Amino acid sequence: MDPATGPTLLGFNVFLVGSILAGIAAVAVLFAIYTALTIKDPMSKRVKALEGRREELKMGLVTSSAKKRQSLVRKSDTTDKIKDTLGNMKVLQQSQVEIVQQRLAHAGIRNKDLAVVIIGLRAVLPILLGGFAFVMLYVVEVYPDWQMKRVAALAAAVFLGYKGPELYIGNIAKKRSDAIRKGLPDALDLLVICAEAGLTVDAAFNRVAKELGRAYPELGDEFALTAIELSFLNERKKAFDNLAYRVDLEAVKGVVTTMVQTERYGTPLASALRVLSAEFRNERMMRAEEKAARLPAIMTVPLIMFILPVLFIVILGPAACSIADAFSGGIG
Asked: Strands 8-9, 12-13: parallel, antiparallel or unpaired by DSSP?
């Protein structure tokens, strides 16, 4: 049979559609095989950044002159120009820069120079998006029927330009915090085992980072960086404070407080971490139970809108057809 004259369904050639779907399925199978054979370590890219931090701390320890120390600071002509421009416009404040830097740290971005870029984008994007929306709505008039909607669309464009970078970074930080929260109880259990085995704190953090790097790469990244800072910083408390600064979780702040207290007063580390691990597991279970308790209320609207109408059609449809046939036969 000629495929061009084959059977059709809803106006589409069945043979042609089947061939396209078979080709898509074959490509998907090949892609799945390629993905399975080329599994990459999620910690590979992070290890390079951690090695850079290690070398930076080494150079900071062995360098004596301020000139050599100054060479360690990353500078960029672009960020310097943006900083000078914003400074001349009187819109750049140090407190604002510090807030953006901490949000970048929560998102896993450790280049502090990007804080100036984010502040510059918040100043430029509202003008660009607002100007584009004004041209499209009032000059080109892509939607001539809109009256008050034009004002709302223009305001939405300006608001999106101002809040867009902050919302993007906040979304990344939230996902990263959730990933770290999931792996924190397991990490504390491994820390307890390492502490009971006689490992030092920095060695325990490094071991946990290696063991959990594949399952929880974000947590492994933070623990590996903490192990590096514990090895090279003069004050170990500073390394723990940096961990609490980079992760926006109260649980991590509790772990940091426990670590600092054990370092200061010599209290048993394993017993304290075991108690924290049990608390975090209970908290995770309570969070899951809370989501399960909210499920009936969330499912009410989809149940009413989508499931019940179909159920009524399936149950009452045959009866309605039988009644209609009986009335039509009686009338005939």
From this structure: antiparallel
Q: What is the pLDDT of residues 114-141, one digit of tens each?
A: 888 888 888 888 889 888 888 888 887 7
Q: Cα–Cα distance between 34 and 324 in angstroms, integer?
A: 57
Tens digit of each residue's pLDDT (9 = 90 or more) over 156-190: 888 988 888 889 999 999 999 988 988 888 888 88
Q: Which token pair is 18?
A: 């089947």
Tokens of 122: 């918040």
Q: Is the pTM of this model over 0.85?
A: no
Tell me the chain's radius of gyration from C-alpha atoms: 30
DSSP state at residue 5:
G
